[in-house]
């Protein structure tokens, strides 16, 4: 295959695969031994597995960007600081997730549609 | 009720450092569940998660006979003769009929909360038989499936005498205490989150939770304390041993909350997702 055709095919793939699917934080979002956020939160259509979970609010990209990365980071690290009554786990404070994993989740949430 | 006194009652019931009478605790939890899900009648709480999900309710109803084999196996164990010629049935009034609804009970002689599993093992010990492991499906689970089925329809009637109020309080505290790496309390899901969906399935309400044990999952009976241990593991906490004072007090508290609701043993449950 000519080099230009390969490049075109790769470019097409890059467009076809949603940016979120390339973000490996989806596994942190779904794995039981990691965030397992999917147990409580729904994602926008196409951003991950569809569920009816509603123990926590549905995660919409616009709302995530409104909160901003620092607040998202704080919420994942220890949500009880902002809301002592929350049932969301303190992923950073209790070392469920490493700081680098929290950063990946922040990027993932901030980029949601 | 004035806001100040309402806040005081809430603080008294839901903080770990206070004490409230059992009926007040139950009343406050009932009011909270009702406020969160006004469309669900309290009588529906015996259906657990299925009270909030008609599709799940239909599957539970379709599988109503799922416990038949366990009940049959338990009946054989219940009536099997010990070496001295007695049987488990001989240790309980009416051979065990209509007794399950009053367990756990406080034994003033032992000064301990006694669960039905403990009573079964006390009987076995009295007749020089070996103990059964409290959560073993093939022995204790099956025996419970049978003896609790003999109380189907009997209303839960757990008594908390003054001497046992501290045990009830210990169970209440444990239920409302955040534990483990995930920082959940039992109440996080079954009071605060009751009826909401976790991993796609509604969370059962605290009231009614103790009425349908053992449940039948994958054709095997799962006792209440076995399920509590699974929950603790999901919470990222080291589970208390079945038969420990911690789980016995938790069961005592939880079963008291179901007082007045009918027992419905051997409810089918799907495998956890």
Counting helices, strands and paired strands, the structural category of chain B is mainly alpha
Structural class by sheet pairing and helices of chain A? mainly alpha
Give the topology string of chain A: H per helix, E per strand.
Answer: HHHHHH
Strand order within the widest beta sheet of chain B: 1-2
Our count of helices of chain B gives 10
Q: How many individual helices of chain A? A: 6
Beta content of chain A comes to under 5%
Polypeptide structure, described:
The complex is a heterodimer of chains A (113) and B (273). Chain A has helices at residues 3-16, 19-22, 25-30, 61-67, 69-77, 99-110. Chain A has 113 residues and is mostly helical. In chain A, helix 5 (69-77) packs across helix 6. The longest helix of chain A is centred in the N-terminal third of the chain and has 14 residues, at 3-16. Chain A starts with a helix and ends with a helix. The model of chain A is unreliable at 1-22 (pLDDT under 50). By secondary structure, chain B is mostly helical. Chain B is built from 10 helices and 6 strands; from the N terminus they run ααααββααααββββαα. Chain B has helices spanning 3-14, 22-36, 54-62, 68-79, 116-126, 137-149, 165-176, 186-192, 224-234, 245-257; strands at residues 105-107, 112-114, 197-198, 201-202, 215-217, 220-222. A two-stranded antiparallel ribbon of chain B has the order 1-2. In chain B, strands 3-4 form a two-stranded antiparallel sheet. In chain B, strands 5-6 form a two-stranded antiparallel ribbon. In chain B, strand 1 (105-107) and strand 2 (112-114) form a beta hairpin. Mean pLDDT of chain B is 93; it is low at 1-12. The interface between A and B is medium-sized, with 16 and 15 residues.
